[in-house]
Amino acid sequence: MSSLNASFVQNMSIVRPEYFFITGLSGIPYSSYYYIFLCVTYFIAVIGNSAVLLIIALERSLHSPKYIGVFNLALADLGETNAWIPNTMKIFFSDSQYMSYNACLANMFFVNLFVTLQSATLVILAFDRYIAICLPLRYHSIVNNTVMSLVFVVVWTFNTSLVALTASLTTQLSFCKSNVVQSYYCDYGAVMGMACNDNSINMFFTNLIVALFLVAPLFIIVLSYMGIVFALSKITTWEARLKALKTCVSHLLLVVSFFLPVICIYIASLITSLTPNARVISGSLSLSLPPMLNPIIYVLNTAEIRVLIQKLLKNRIVSIRKNISKRR
């Protein structure tokens, strides 16, 4: 009976603020120019990733395992961009930096979900490249549309469940000291650090997500490319090696654009103590740049998409010229 009473008292003692105050950039002159920059990256990311989704969905020749992965990456990029940039713009351009408790949880869930999906997709694409180069004769028996679709169903289900559980555990935290979030969105780490009761379970799941979706993916991708380099070393001619390596260029650039900003932030935080504004700028860049760069990388480095866009533009120009000639 006493344990039930203790549990009841503990639940009653949980303090949940009605709103959180999102600091963003504070005390920096002309900070509005940075928010304008974020708006530009947002529109480029939305247009670019929407175009990639549309092209892959409509072009039957791109309905292959590799492009199922690219489709999911573009979908995750689009989701991540929409999860935080519009809300950030709304908060700071309306001079109202308050976010309701429930909106904060939703913001936290969607940003973390799509970031984990980006990381998992890069691992799956690395596996695709590994099989294509190291086991080319068995590629179509190991990697096909059905297998790739099932893999992504499992990934979406697992990531959604884990991130939802992690976000729901925030409701067990008590915020009795402050409701000021030192970030540009409802960052799980910043919110968890504000708690004045035991957050060990939350810390465990935070470390688990970091291990599963940052450390492990980078380790697996490095291992896969070590295997690819070893396989390429067995090829006798440099021309064949370069031809095989060219199929990995797009994926390597995607990996660099996703992991390099995170690694740089981590190294910088070890070397020096980052100010809140420096953390906001570096963190927002690490989230905003990959979704903007990814569609550009694929358009420039993927021959199939590049040729398809050229055909569409050519047909469009021809139709416009025909209409002009008819009017004359």
Describe this protein's structure:
The chain has 328 residues and is an all-alpha fold. Helix content is 77%, strand content 3%. It contains twelve helices and three strands, in the order H-E-H-H-E-H-H-H-E-H-H-H-H-H-H. Strands 2-1-3 form a three-stranded mixed beta sheet. Helix 2 packs parallel to helix 11 and helix 10 packs antiparallel against helix 11. It starts with a helix and ends with a helix. InterPro entries: GPCR_Rhodpsn (IPR000276), GPCR_Rhodpsn_7TM (IPR017452), Olfact_rcpt (IPR000725), OR51/52/56-like (IPR050402). This is Olfactory receptor 51A4-like.
Strand/helix succession: HEHHEHHHEHHHHHH
Low-confidence stretches: 1-11
- Largest sheet descriptor: 3 strands, mixed
The count of β-strands is 3
Note the overall shape.
globular
**Helix vs. strand class:** mainly alpha
What is the radius of gyration? 23 Å
N/C terminus separation: 92 Å
Which strand order does the major sheet show? 2-1-3
Helix amount: over 70%
Q: What is the count of DSSP helices, taking H or I runs of 4+ residues?
A: 12
How much β-strand is present in the residues?
A: under 5%
